[in-house]
Amino acid sequence: MNSSVLLRLMVMLVQLWPCFPSRQNSRAQDTVQSFTEVRRVKRGWLWEPFFVTEEQISPHPVYIGQLKSDLDKQDGNLKYILTGEGAGSFFVIDEYNGKIYVIQKLDREKKSFYTLRAEAINRSTQLPVEPESEFIIKVRDVNDNEPQFLDGPYVATVPEMSPEGTSVTQVTATDADDPSYGNSARLLYSLIQGQPYFSVEPKTGVIRMASEMDRETKDQYLVIIQAKDMVGQPGAFSATATVTINLSDVNDNPPKFQQRLYYMRVSEEAPVGTTVGKVFAEDSDIGDNAAMDYLIEEDSSDVFHIITNNETQEGIVLLKKRVDYESRKRYSIQVKAVNRYIDERFLKKGPFEDTTIVKINVEDADEPPVFTLENYVMEIFEGAMGGTLVGVVTARDPDDADSPVRYSIVHSMHLKRLFSINEHNGAIITTEPLDREIASWHNFTVTATETRNPEKISEANVYVQVLDVNDNAPEFPKNYETFVCENAVSGQQIQNISAVDQDDSAESHHFYFSLAQEDTNSSHFTVKDNQDNTAGIFTGKSGFRREEQFFFYLPILIQDNGTPPLTSTNTLTVTVCDCDTEVNTFYCRYGAFMYSLGLSTEALVAVLACILIFLVFFLAIITIRQQRKKKPPFSEKMEEFRENIVSYDDEGGGEQDTEAFDISALRTRAVMRTHRPRKKAVSEIQSLYRQSLQVGPDSAIFRQFISEKLQEANADPTVPPYDSLQTYAYEGTGSLAGSLSSLGSNTSDMDQSYDYLADWGPHFKQLAGMYSSHRTVGD
Q1: What is residue 672's three-state secondary structure?
Q2: What mean pLDDT is predicted for residues 342-360?
Q3: Mean per-residue pLDDT, 534-552
Q4: Would you say 278 and 376 are in contact if contact means Cβ atoms under 8 Å apart?
C-alpha cells in the first residue's frame, strides 16, 4: 500500500468520524490517537487526523497537526506547501517541518470542515518529492448557540372538558450546535407558566391537558414553554415561547328560561299569523351548541304555534287560528326549549331542555258581521221571470251588542241589471230573465255592514248557476253547399248533414231528421236519418236539367229530445251542375254565380275582353307620358347655349364712363369669332319702343334718344348673343324745377336756399322738409 492510498483511507476515517455513536466517542478518540503515532517506513506521507475546536481565541497561532514525508531528512532540503479551503487565511503550514497552525477563530455553524492539499518539493530542484495529497481539518463543536423557537408565538385550540392527557399542540425549538457531538444540541422542554391546567413532555415538547376545563369559566390560557440545551445541565442556554390556548365550545349546558311564567294578550280582530309574544331561554354555550327549537305542549285548542328566530334564539308565538272573545277569553300553553344539537357525552348531566308556561288573554273588539258561509252556491232556471228568488245570505254581529246588519251587492254594470238583494233579510232576486246560453254562471260579492258602525264590513262570495231549459231548437252547424250532377241516378247520396243545439241536455243530445211534408220537391230528394245525429240526402229520381231548374230548396225538419221537444226547419240548397258523376265544385260555384247574375258565359267573356282592352290602352298612355318626362326640354339648343359666370371687382367711373366694363368677357369664343345678326331682336325692340311711346312722355327728344340707343345696340358687335332688355334713365330737358343733381355745380349747399320746394305741392312735401332753411344739409 503506497502513501496516497493510505492518505485516502485516513481521510475517509475522518469523514466517518461523526457517524460513531456518542457513547463510543472516547474509545474512538483513543484509537485515533494511537493510530496517529504510527510512522511508515516506506516512502510516503506521515500524517495524523486534524481537529480544531471552534471559537478558540489566542494571540498566537494554535498548532493543530503535522504533515511529514518519510523522505524528509530534516536537513531543510524539503519544502512543504499548503493549498485548498482556508489555506493562508485560516490555516498556515511551516514549510520546513510541515506543522499546521490555525490563525483565526473558526465557527462550526458556518463551516464544519475544510478540505486542503499538501505538497512536498525539493528546494534545490523545485520538483515534488511526494505526490500532492488531500486531507480534511474538522472543526469540533462547542455550545455557543442558544435554542430558538422559529414558529412561535403559538396558538392552539382544544375543546373544553377534554380529558386529562389530551394533546393540545407541540412546540419545537432548534439549536445550531452539532447534534452528533456532545450535548450542545440536546434540548429539554419545561413548563414555566400554565400549571396546573397543562403539562409538557420534556423531550418532544408536546403540550397536554392536565385537567378538565370549562369554557364558560375561562376560555383562554397563556402558557410559557422553556427549551434548554445541554440536557438542562448548568451553564446551558435556554429560550422560551408563548402558547395561547383557546378552549372551543361543546354543548355541555342545557337551555334555561329566565321566566317561569309569561303573560301575553291578543285581540280577537287579529288575523292569522299575528305575533302574540316572544319567549327566550338562555344557553351558556355559543354557536350551534346554543341553537334550540321551541315547541308548544298541552295545547288541545291548536290555536297557537311557535317558531324559532335563529338569529336571536327567541321563540315567537304566532296566532294559528282566529280567536273569539265571546267563545273563549283566555288560553294557557306550555312552551319547551330543546337544544338542536346534543352531545351524547354530556347526557349524564340531565336533559338538554327546559319548559315555561305562557298565559294568553283574548281582548274584546268590535268585530264585523260574520256570514254563515264564506261562499254561497245558488241555482235558478233560465228564463225565470224578474223578481224570482235566487237564495238568501245570512250574517250576524258576533259581539254582545248584536248590531243589526245591512246587506248589499258589490255590483258591476252587468250584474246590476240582473240581481238585487234585500238589504234587511239578504234575499237575492233576479231583475230580469237569465239566459244560460249567454252565461251559465254569475259570480258576485255580497257585503254585510253593521248599522251602528258602518266601518265594520264583511264580505261573502255568491255563485249563481243558471240551469238549462229546452228553449233552443236544433239547427245546422254550418251553411251546406250541396251539388248534384245532371246525370245523377236515383238513390245517389249527395250530402251528409248534422245538427247542433245550444241547450245543455241532461242526457246526450239526440236529433231526428225528416223532410217537411209541404215540400213540393219531395219526389226529387229524400232524407234518411242515420240515428247517430246525422242524416243523408239522396236523389229521388234519375237525371236533372239545369235549364228547367237550377236550384232546389229542401226544408229539413230537425227535432231534439228535450222536454218538451223542439223542432226547427232548416233549408238546404241543392245546385244542379253540368257533370256526369263527379262534381267539380269550382265550376258549379261559377255556374251558380253566373246564374244569380243573369249572365251567360259568352256575355261574361265579352265584358272581360273590354276591361282588358281598356287596361292596355291606359298603360300605353302612362308609358308615353313617362318617356316624354325623361327627355329634357330644348335638347337641341343645350349645346349651343352656354353661360359663363365672370366674377370681377371693378368700380365704375359714373354715368359718363362707358368704357369701364368690357362686355366681351361674357361672349364665348365661338361668338367672338362669328357674329350672327339677330333676326328677331329688332322687331322685339321696336315693339318695346312702341310700348314706351305709349307709357312714356310724348317728347321728340325722348323718342330720338331711344332710336339712337336702338341703332347702337343693333350695330354693336359686343352685345350678348341672346335677346336682352336694356333699361335707360333719361332725365330730359325743359324742367321748370331744374336739375337736382349737384354734379357740375359751383355753389355749395350752404349758398343755396331750398324754400321754393314748399311751393311745389304735396308730392315734394317730404323733400321740402329735408332741405328747409332751418336745417343744415351736408353733402
Answers
A1: helix
A2: 86
A3: 86
A4: no
Q: What are phi and psi of 132, to 5 degrees?
A: -65, 135
> What is the residue whose three cell numbers read 291606359?
618
**327 burial level (CB within 10 Å; 0-12, 13-18, 19+):** exposed
Compute the 3-state secondary structure of the chain and give helix, strand, coil in percent, each to the nearest 5. Answer: 20, 30, 50
Question: How many whole angstroms from its chain centre is CA 653?
Answer: 82
- Rounded to whole angstroms, the Cα distance separating 81 from 78 reads 10
Q: Give the C-alpha separation, 539 to 482, whole Å.
A: 12
Cβ neighbours of residue 350 under 8 Å, at least 6 residues apart?
254
Contacts 24+ apart (CB under 8 A), 619-628: none
For residue 87, what pLDDT is reported?
83
3-state secondary structure 440-507: CEEEEEEEEEECCCCCCEEEEEEEEEEECCCCCCCECCCCCCEEEECCCCCCCEEEEEECECCCCCCC
On whether the CB atoms of residues 441 and 465 are closer than 8 A, the answer is yes
Give SS3 for 691. Answer: helix
Phi first, then psi, for residue 327 (nearest 5°) are: -90, -45
Cell numbers found for residue 164: 386529562
pLDDT in the model for residue 708: 81
User: Residue 39 in contact with residue 14, Cβ under 8 Å?
Assistant: no
* Radius of gyration of the chain, Cα coordinates, nearest whole angstrom: 68
User: Cα separation of 673 and 487, whole Å?
Assistant: 97
| C-alpha angle 539-543-545 in degrees, rounded to nearest 5 | 115
- Give backbone dihedrals phi and psi of 223, rounded to 5 degrees, phi first: -115, 140
Say whether pLDDT at 640 is over 60.
no
CA torsion sign, 672 to 675 to 680 to 685? positive
Nearest to 259, CA basis, from 318, 206, 315:
315
Take residue 738 and report the three cell numbers written for it: 331744374
Could you tell me the three cell numbers for 565? 221537444
Classify 720 as helix, strand or coil: coil
Contact status, residue 496 vs residue 536, Cβ threshold 8 Å: yes
Q: Give me the pLDDT at residue 43, please.
A: 43
Cell of 366: 268590535
Stretch 221-250: mean pLDDT, rounded?
88
Residue with cell 339648343: 637
pLDDT of residue 665 exceeding 70: no
SS3 114: strand
Are 336 and 254 in contact, with CB atoms under 8 Å apart? Answer: no
How distant, in Å, are the alpha carbons of 118, 201, 206, 249, 327 from that of 198? 59, 10, 10, 18, 66
Mean pLDDT of all residues belonging to the chain: 77
Q: State pLDDT tens for residues 148-168.
A: 898 889 999 999 888 899 999
Phi and psi of 377, rounded to 5°?
Answer: -115, 125
Residue 24 CA to its chain's centroid (Å): 79
Q: Give the span between the Cα atoms of 276 and 304, in whole angstroms.
A: 9
Average pLDDT, stretch 430-457?
89
Give the C-alpha separation, 131 to 31, whole Å: 27
The pLDDT value given to residue 343: 83
Is 80 exceeded by the pLDDT of residue 27?
no
Residue 266's pLDDT is 94
3-state secondary structure of 617: helix
Going from the C-alpha of 447 to that of each of 300, 374, 422, 427, 542, the distances in angstroms are 34, 11, 12, 13, 73
Decide the pairing of beta strands 220-228 and 238-248.
antiparallel
Contact 650, 661 (CB under 8 A): yes
Average pLDDT over every residue of 217-233: 88
Residue 60 to residue 91: CA distance in whole angstroms: 13
Specify whether the backbone of 575 is left (phi greater than 0), alpha (psi in -120 to 50) or beta: beta
pLDDT surpasses 80 at 300:
no
Q: Is the peptide bond before 153 cis (omega within 30 degrees of 0)?
A: yes
With bands split at pLDDT 50, 70 and 90, how would you rate the model's confidence at 86? Answer: confident
- Residue 501 CA to chain centroid, in angstroms? 55
